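User: For my dataset I need records formatted as: sequence, then structure tokens, nothing else. Please produce one.
Assistant:
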Amino acid sequence: MYPEALPVRILSNPGTFKRRSGSYSNDKPEVFAAGSGSPNQKLSSSCVGRACGEMDTPPLSDSESESDESLVTDRELQDAFSRGLLKPGLNVVLEGPKKAVNDVNGLKQCLAEFKRDLEWVERLDVTLGPVPEIGGSEAPAPQNKDQKAVDPEDDFQREMSFYRQAQAAVLAVLPRLHQLKVPTKRPTDYFAEMAKSDLQMQKIRQKLQTKQAAMERSEKAKQLRALRKYGKKVQTEVLQKRQQEKAHMMNAIKKYQKGFSDKLDFLEGDQKPLAQLKKAGAKGQQMRKGPSAKRRYKNQKFGFGGKKKGSKWNTRESYDDVSSFRAKTAHGRGLKRPGKKGSNKRPGKRTREKMKNRTH
């Protein structure tokens, strides 16, 4: 005998299976013990019933309940296979995608069930577009509908489109109702509340106005931010221009202090544009007559340039030129100081010694 709660193994695929001792045919699903001594020992029907929980057993724990659910699932699979619902290699037959069918006759039949051929007075239906705007002379053309479509996110614009469409319907329907002698005004003693009270409509109106004002403030804030951004850009350009003019003026002052320039154009301020000053500084030196102050200073200090080697040699002209010759200076007479000869002459050494001995 086998234990009462014995797990089972179902062979769902018919065919021939091999084993060590031989082979056998599995034309019908059979149940075998999963943990018996023989790996492929066949169970009897009574054992299968006990294994599947068909006998009275005490309450099961969580682990035992899970195993019981698995046994029930195996039994369901066995029953499904016996009915031919399972195919080899599959546990569940997948259903194909549903095919869409355009049943025109069925749709027409459904339409005929609720369609009524009534007079317009009974239906009171009209299909119209919105009333033209106050600023416009005519309604927009059909090809411009996409260009002037209502933004669904804009509550104010959406509500206004509803209002204009209802207004167009009223203007078109009232004359027809008057022709058909249908009263359009209720009696003075007739009381009927609207679907939405006046208080609710006032709240909606206030909400829409608040939202519209918030949108306008947002647009103004965007414009102010754009103006501030443009103002900062202009201010930065002005500051850069001032810094360039200041640097140019400082360079002109330094050149004037060092004697490289004799013009005081930097004292004129902003009378000349910066571009003209740069152009004048680049081409003015080339067009200036004569050497610059820097060149004159170097000529005065180092000479006028040209050949330096052999510049002190005599030539025929320099040898014949005696205009700068001074005879007194040449013979050493011009360097003596005027005065009497020997007036402050000091006595010699022997004389000074004799004079010293006489005193003793």
